[in-house]
Design brief:
It contains twelve helices and five strands. 50% of the residues lie in helices and 12% in strands. By secondary structure, it is of the alpha/beta class.
Length: 277
């Protein structure tokens, strides 16, 4: 899956060439996909526990899952389904909104650093540092010269994370223009979903071509050996959840965290425990 969905470093990106409704490498249908995702839960939970245990013994490794995508691509839904496969106590979740006044008074990576997972944890970002080269580009919030420097800053930042033991898994949830409209209409048609709808979403939708270009540039410039981008088709929710889970599983298996060995005399402790009624 890592090779199948990965954007090679330096490769030109044309999102129109990616099928948002595709199921590359996936199960044959929704029923099989949901079942396959559920089966991954036990293995993911075991690897997470091992990662957490290793962290208590000084292993600095941790995982950072970054989710980016257009509105309705399913960032929040993916968080919900992925966390359901883990022990929440070992996860650190952060949804990034518009910067606060305090955050605007600091370099753009300041708020990102504050939210990073600790050793042994799995961090999940709903949006991330990439907002500062996406919406900032589309809305022209900063001078173009400053914007262009940010790509290099992000790459250096992610390289430093990798050097410090962070496995960065960046997923672009690729939803189609037509599917986004259907999902927005579903929110309008269901009163229980009105809280998820923002009239501003329609204004953002009008900027779809500009956002697609901004994503293509970010994916092209910031898919590196240390922190590659993965394009996850997101029109089919079941496939999106399965693919992100598979990517996490592949990275955790490659890390292969181990339970730390006891730093005490196990047999002596057993003897003492049994000696006391």
């Amino acid at each position: 899956m890592r090779e199948l969905l990965r954007i090679p470093e330096g490769e030109r990106v044309d999102l129109s060439s990616y099928d948002a409704a595709g199921t590359p490498g996936g199960p044959r249908n929704k029923e099989e996909g949901v079942a396959a995702t559920a089966r991954m839960g036990e293995r993911l939970a075991d690897l997470q526990e091992r990662l957490w245990a290793a962290g208590t013994a000084g292993d600095r490794r941790r995982v950072l899952l970054i989710l980016q995508g257009m509105d309705t691509s399913g960032k929040g839904g993916t968080v919900k389904h992925v966390i359901g496969l883990f022990n929440p106590s070992g996860c650190r979740i952060k949804a990034f909104k518009a910067p606060t006044r305090e955050e605007l008074n600091h370099p753009f990576l300041w708020r990102i650093v504050k939210a990073l997972p600790e050793p042994g944890e799995i961090g999940i970002f709903d949006r991330s540092q990439y907002e500062d080269v996406l919406i900032a580009r589309v809305r022209e919030l900063v001078p173009r010269s400053q914007l262009d420097r940010r790509y290099g800053q992000i790459n250096r930042f992610e390289r430093s994370l990798a050097e410090d033991g962070v496995t960065v898994v960046k997923c672009f949830l690729h939803v189609s223009y037509e599917q986004q409209k259907r999902r927005l209409l579903e929110r309008l048609d269901n009163p229980d979903k009105h809280w998820k709808f923002n009239p501003g979403d329609i204004d953002e939708r009008a900027l779809w071509p500009a956002y697609q270009e901004a994503y293509e540039i970010a994916l092209e410039r910031c898919s590196t050996e240390e922190a590659p981008w993965f394009v996850v088709p997101a029109d089919r929710k079941w496939y999106r959840n399965w693919a992100v889970s598979r990517l996490l599983l592949a990275h955790l298996e490659a890390m292969d965290p181990q339970y730390p060995k006891a730093d005490f005399d196990v047999e002596e402790s057993r003897r003492r425990l049994l000696a006391n009624p």
